[in-house]
Amino acid sequence: MTQSNNPLLSVSISASYAGNKPVLRHLILEIREREIHGLAGGSGSGKSTLVLAIMGLLPPTCKLTGKVSFNGVDLLSVSESKLRRIRGREIALILQSPTAALNPMLRIGTQLREAWRAHKPRQDENEEIRQTLRCVSLPDEEAFLRRYPSEISVGQGHRLLIAMAVLSPWLHHCGRTDQRVRRNYTKGDPGPAAGM
């Protein structure tokens, strides 16, 4: 497969919250297929604002100007229904806190199957879910899938969120990764995905 010269993600934005100085000023970022980027900065430097802008999840109190283009689609001008179809299916957000992101009342297997069915409803999920769990160094046995989030470690919870995200999207935004995930994910073929 030949890599396209066109960026998968192209961002050129400025953002500020009501009554505050700008958080992002003329930020420009391009990510091509199969590229992995890291974004570092202190608290309040705009990392979360950038990710939320890409996902179309900024609160109304944030004034955003510029352009966010993903796979040729301007995400700032598409309808909410089209943006919902892109979120999760093509772009995934991996939150830093598994306790905030996982439903404590649902078993792990149920949450993985729901994530799968939301994006690939007519395909069999079992083998791909198990393969994805192995890719992020999690057990793929039924006993693990029957656990609740409170019955796994925080590290396992974080890897579970990564597994849920990599089931299909092309672009992943991670709060952080752990060494085992980086090692396994880069050994395998993550497909056309770019990561940040």
Question: Overview of this structure, please?
Answer:
The structure is a single chain. This protein is of the alpha/beta class. It has two domains: 1-83, no CATH class; 88-196, Rossmann fold (3-Layer(aba) Sandwich). Helices cover 35% and strands 19% of the residues. A four-stranded antiparallel sheet has the order 2-1-3-4, with helices on one face. A three-stranded parallel sheet has the order 5-6-7, with helices on one face. Helix 4 packs parallel to helix 7 and helix 5 packs across helix 7. The chain is globular. It starts with 8 loop residues before the first strand and ends with a strand.
Based on Cα principal axes, name the global outline. globular
Q: Could you say how many structural domains there are in total?
A: 2
Terminal CA distance = 22 Å
**Low-pLDDT ranges:** 177-193
Query: Biggest sheet, open or closed, and with what strands and sense?
Result: 4 strands, antiparallel
The CATH topology of the largest domain: Rossmann fold
Quantity of strands, as a count? 7
Strand order of the largest sheet: 2-1-3-4
Let me know the average pLDDT.
81
CATH architecture type of the largest domain? 3-Layer(aba) Sandwich
Number of helices: 8
- Beta-strand level of the residues, as a percent range? 15-25%
Listing every helix as H and every strand as E from the N terminus to the C terminus, the arrangement reads: EEHEEHEHHHHHEHE
Give the C-alpha Rg.
17 Å
Proportion in helices: 25-40%
Say which CATH homologous superfamily of the largest domain is assigned.
Answer: P-loop containing nucleotide triphosphate hydrolases
Any idea of the CATH class of the largest domain?
Answer: Alpha Beta
Summing up helix and strand content along with how strands pair, one would put the structural category as: alpha/beta
